[in-house]
Design a protein that fits this description.
It is built from 25 helices and 15 strands. It is α/β, with parallel strands linked by helices. The relative contact order is 0.06.
Length: 707
């Protein structure tokens, strides 16, 4: 092989590797991670062009026997990268945290702006880019202009052909549709059968209640505990009030006809595919005529609400998994969804997870619950009186009906001092660093910030314990402990009723703790439920939002608040009183649900039943955590001292620069002062050099068996 062939082949390999490093850093080892990191720092977003330039040079060297002006082309390749970095940096503007041009682009931008100004910088950078591309590819300007003219001619032909075909097709598609609308409208009667199904569901609930009691009694018997704990029975909850909503087939048909006529007044042809009546709203699924834009219905939401005589409607366009548009219209008489309906439902009972909790009912009236374990954290936001606190109470109550005190603990934080103190002294309460007899619901913001800091240390302690046993998560650890006869770990659910108060008083500490817990705590069984009535960027920061993928939005005042919570509009059109949009983990579109209601009397009955059985009891491991931390710090400082003495003995001298250059970094000054205090070195008056006592160092190291 010739030299050019070898060089070209090497460059091809390097280019492919760099592409892999940039697009798949997690599968590229430490070399790939560091390569990608420093490429992005130096070149910014232009680093994705860097491997392409290398591949271009490699192919040129491989397939071109003779390369003329190699140095010139190399310079042009470099100029392409430079100009791209500069253009990306110029496009960033005055936002340094979003610098797309990297180190090269930023400093080139500063220099060019000083010389020719901002506009001149754009002209100069684009000029260099165009010239460099022409030099690298070898294409002349004439060839490029010929290509553009040919492309423009082909485009014109296609447009002419398209305009000739469209007028012939449009009448054929649109004309038959109005006839189909008239034929299909009577079929609205069919979806109303779902109403009968919804009404028949409560009849099977008494049988389910007895089954749940038997299952819970059987599950509580085989466990050997100091005090036998019995899970609360659903009989402690009130029977949901059956409100006769009078959603008769005739009313649904009339409402559907009215909706179709309203759309027809605005020249929109549609047919009703199905009607889904729920406890608070009814969703009408419409199939639009071909050629009808979905945005035309979205823009008419206020006009439809006016015609239907409702305060607001919500347009779901399109319905996920269905080629239809949903229009959600509030019912004239709204039903209350009781938590008993959800807790005694099949979905809730058949779930094996301890962290399964009730949320409410769907727009079709089906019970809806979800699991906190895979979420792994939940954000709840909404204005005052929209149902946020009731949602928190329903989550706590659901978990109390599923888990025993040795399986689940609550860290309850309520700066408002209104909602959560009702759970005072239940055996599930937990505060890290406090003894069980002193545990309580936290109402002080500074105490809450300290508790979250300590919980981070509990998380780190659990990670170390899991690593020793070579298990990946809390479920694997508990399974192993069941086999070995060891002590199992319990889940910890942190519930903060008003995050805004904490962020006002101790924002840095709270945000840092929440960030660490949200990023890492899932595997060790710690989960967060954060609620706030002020969904602003100062409270729900980008860091917090990024780590809480599951979100519940209640009624808010503006579209901006809705976008802060869900990243989409819609929460501003909710009706309040438990009407919510729920965004599950991994979903792009939220679901509309009606939250279940829990009264204060129901909570008091359940809490009273639980308090009679046990008191807060857990092993406070924080003393052992502090002891191990002190031991680790002392061992680390001892090792640091020995390493410094070895360096002094080897070099026969010591200095700040020497320590810093040999791995001590920012600790160099502290280590130097410690050596002086211990008497290993001394600085005589009038000199800048340290005097090293070699004999004393050798004696110390021999005692430590380090020589």
């Amino acid at each position: 092989m010739k030299r050019n062939d070898i060089r070209g082949f090497i460059l091809l390999i390097v280019g492919v590797l760099f592409l892999w490093f940039l697009f798949y850093p997690q599968q590229s080892g430490f070399l790939g991670l560091y390569t990608r990191k420093y490429l992005l720092i130096i070149f910014g977003k232009a680093s994705y062009i860097f491997p392409l330039v290398i591949l271009w040079i490699g192919t040129k060297l491989l397939f071109n026997k003779k390369l003329n002006n190699t140095n010139l082309k190399l310079v042009s390749d470099i100029l392409i990268l430079w100009s791209l970095c500069t253009i990306l940096s110029l496009s960033t503007g005055d936002t340094p945290e979003k610098n797309f041009g990297g180190f090269i682009g930023k400093y080139s931008e500063i220099g060019i702006k000083k010389i020719v100004g901002n506009f001149g910088g754009w002209i100069f950078s684009f000029g260099v880019l165009i010239i460099s591309v022409f030099l690298t590819t070898g294409i002349s300007f004439d060839d490029f202009s010929d290509f553009l003219s040919k492309f423009a001619k082909l485009r014109k032909r296609k447009l002419l052909e398209d305009t000739g075909e469209k007028p012939k097709e449009l009448p054929k598609v649109i004309v038959p549709k109005p006839i189909e609308i008239k034929n299909e409208e009577p079929e609205i009667i069919k979806p109303t059968k779902e109403l009968k199904i919804i009404k028949e569901k409560p009849a099977s609930k008494p049988e389910q209640l007895f089954r749940t009691k038997e299952k819970k009694r059987e599950s509580s018997k085989p466990q050997d505990t100091v005090t036998k704990y019995e899970l609360p029975s659903p009989e402690l909850l009130d029977e949901p009030k059956k409100v006769e909503t009078q959603l008769v087939e005739d009313e649904l048909r009339d409402c559907g006809d009215k909706l179709i006529k309203t759309l027809a007044d605005f020249d929109i042809s549609a047919t009703i595919d199905s009607i889904n009546p729920g406890p608070v709203i009814t969703r009408y699924d419409l199939i639009l005529a071909p050629g009808t834009k979905v945005n035309s219905i979205i823009n008419l939401s206020n006009d439809i609400a006016l015609t239907m005589k409702t305060e607001s409607i919500r347009v779901l366009a399109p319905i996920p998994g269905k080629s239809a548009v949903g229009i959600e219209i509030p019912n004239p008489k709204q039903a209350i969804v009781g938590i008993k309906d959800i807790i005694t439902s099949k979905k809730f009972m058949e779930s094996k997870s301890l962290l399964n909790f009730a949320i409410g009912k769907t727009t079709a009236g089906e019970p809806f619950c979800d699991d906190l374990a895979p979420m792994p954290h939940l954000l709840i936001a909404g204005s005052t009186g929209s149902g946020k606190s009731v949602c928190i109470n329903s989550i706590i109550m659901s978990l109390l009906f599923r888990a025993k005190p040795d399986e689940l603990k609550f860290l309850l934080i309520d700066p408002k001092r209104l909602e959560l103190p009702i759970y005072e002294n239940i055996p599930h309460l937990y505060v890290p660093g406090k003894k069980p007899e002193n545990v309580s619901v936290i109402t002080d913001a500074k105490e809450a910030a300290n508790a979250l800091k300590l919980l981070v240390k509990v998380m780190e302690h659990r990670y170390k314990a899991f690593a020793k046993k070579a298990v990946r998560n809390i479920d694997g650890y508990n399974e192993l402990m069941a086999k070995e006869g060891g002590k199992k770990e319990y889940y910890i659910v942190v519930i903060i009723d008003e995050l805004a108060d904490l962020m006002l008083i101790a924002s840095n500490d709270v945000e840092e703790s929440i960030m660490r817990l949200a990023q890492m705590a899932r595997a060790v069984g710690i989960h967060l439920v954060l609620a706030t009535q002020r969904p602003s960027v100062n409270v729900i920061t980008g860091v917090i939002k990024a780590n809480l993928p599951a979100r519940i939005a209640f009624q808010v005042l503006s579209k901006t608040d809705s976008r802060v919570i869900l990243d989409v509009n819609g929460a501003e059109d909710l009706l309040g009183r438990g009407d919510m949009l729920y965004l599950p983990t991994g979903s792009s579109k939220p679901l509309r649900l009606q939250g279940n209601y829990v009264s204060v009397k129901e909570i008091e009955r359940v809490v009273k039943f639980i308090k009679k059985q046990a008191k807060p009891d857990y092993e406070d491991i924080f003393e052992t955590i502090v002891a191990t931390e002190k031991k680790e710090i002392s061992e680390e400082s001892r090792k640091e001292l020995v390493d410094a003495l070895k360096l002094a003995l080897e070099r026969k001298r010591i200095s700040y620069d020497l320590l810093k250059a040999n791995g001590f970094g920012n600790r160099a000054a502290d280590v130097l002062s410690r050596l002086e205090v211990e008497g290993f070195i001394r600085k005589p008056e009038g000199t800048n050099r340290w005097e090293v006592f070699i004999d004393k160092i050798e004696e110390f190291l021999s005692k430590e068996n380090k020589i």
